[in-house]
Amino acid sequence: MSVEENLIMGSLHGEAKAKRRQTLEYVYGLFPRLKERRKQLAGTLSGGEQQMAAIGRGLMSLPRIMMFDEPSLGLAPLLVQEIFTIIKKINQDGVTVLLVEQNVTQTLKMCHRAYVLENGRVVLEGTGKALLENAQIKEAFLGI
Length: 144
Fold this sequence. Notes:
By secondary structure, the protein is of the alpha+beta class. It contains 9 helices and 4 strands, in the order αααααβαβαββαα. α1 packs parallel to α5 (47-59).
């Protein structure tokens, strides 16, 4: 399937289907590369572009909440920054974001609320800013 066909698959129900064109333009605004490659087979995209297509497809359903599980995994540093910028924009546009990520610094800089899990248990919680300044976090995760 092409990139655009994949995106359209995310908007097959009710309101999402009715607002498909508008949402597609929103997704292409977030990811101009997808618009450039809309006729290309999605399976031939680079890893970063496939990540963009997956996020775009999720957005096509007009979600109120989106969960991201390690969105930076395996991506080049420039793409990591781009993905985090887009996730922040999605949140600013009204979608609640649940982000599971090992890139501690980048994640804490952008999140409103954070939870640190250790062996499946919450060991710390607070605002992203507070945890970024926390001595335990600096030592355990940031090597400071």
